[in-house]
């Protein structure tokens, strides 16, 4: 049975296009689903977190282990998943701060990536990711979309190179047609995945 991790990054719980489309996609893919709702605020990394993270695991104090506990849990969710579905609303041309906080907590040297003489190497290989993008006016993957390319790059850095982008963009311009097109895209991708 496949295991899908759904990352919900929208601050809105009701009426969120990314939440609705991400949930629909995950359910259609089937298998076990874990949802990480980033509306439940994650802490920002700080000096104590950085110090704990760069201390070798076998040398960490109990305090340092406690500081990294949430990050460890988020990483474990990622490691356990075969598929990742990320709801990405575009806020002011970029990703929500909550999603950036999640990235900061899961992008960990020697845990989810490593540096080698040939350059960085992601350690989360063999996974498939779907990014469900929604925006009011920003065209996805255009010169003013700094969210989608950033997220795709981070996933690749972590070893997740198989990434599909589903777009419900420019909703304030094209209205419900954006959501309908995204639903069609989802249906097509689910058929291919089956």
Structure description:
The chain is of the alpha/beta class and 194 residues long. The chain has helices at residues 17-29, 47-54, 62-80, 97-106, 148-157, 171-174, 176-193, and strands spanning 3-8, 32-37, 83-89, 113-116, 119-122, 128-134, 162-168. It has one domain (3-193): 3-Layer(aba) Sandwich (Rossmann fold), CATH 3.40.50. Helices cover 42% and strands 21% of the residues. Helix 1 links the parallel strand 1 and strand 2 (32-37). Helix 2 (47-54) packs across helix 3 (62-80). The longest helix has 19 residues, at 62-80. It is globular, with a radius of gyration of 17 Å. The mean pLDDT is 96.
- Strand residue percentage: 15-25%
Residue share in helices?
40-55%
Task: State the total count of DSSP E strands.
Answer: 7
H/E order of the elements? EHEHHEHEEEHEHH
- Secondary-structure arrangement, i.e. CATH architecture: 3-Layer(aba) Sandwich
Secondary structural class: alpha/beta
Through-space gap between termini: 13 Å
Largest sheet: 5 strands, parallel
CATH superfamily: Flavodoxin domain
Point out poorly predicted stretches: none
Family: Belongs to the azoreductase type 1 family.
Keywords: Flavoprotein, FMN, NAD, Oxidoreductase
Protein name: FMN dependent NADH:quinone oxidoreductase
EC number: 1.6.5.-, 1.7.1.17
């Amino acid at each position: 049975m496949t295991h899908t991790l759904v990352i919900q990054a929208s601050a809105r719980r009701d009426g969120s296009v990314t939440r609705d489309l991400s949930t629909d996609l995950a359910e259609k893919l089937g298998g076990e689903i874990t949802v990480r709702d980033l509306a439940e605020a994650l802490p920002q990394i700080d000096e104590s977190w950085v110090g704990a993270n760069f201390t070798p695991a076998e040398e960490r104090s109990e305090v340092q282990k406690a500081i990294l506990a949430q990050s460890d849990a988020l990483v474990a969710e990622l490691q356990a998943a075969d598929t990742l579905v990320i709801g990405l609303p575009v806020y002011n041309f970029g990703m929500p701060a909550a999603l950036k906080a999640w990235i900061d907590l899961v992008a960990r040297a020697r845990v989810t990536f490593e540096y080698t003489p040939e350059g960085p190497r992601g350690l989360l290989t063999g996974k498939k990711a779907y990014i469900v993008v929604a925006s009011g006016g920003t065209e996805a993957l255009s010169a003013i979309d700094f969210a989608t390319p950033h997220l795709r790059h981070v996933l690749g850095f972590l070893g997740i190179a198989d990434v599909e982008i589903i777009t419900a963009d420019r909703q304030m311009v094209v209205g419900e047609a954006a959501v309908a097109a995204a639903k069609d895209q989802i249906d097509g991708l689910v058929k291919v995945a089956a």
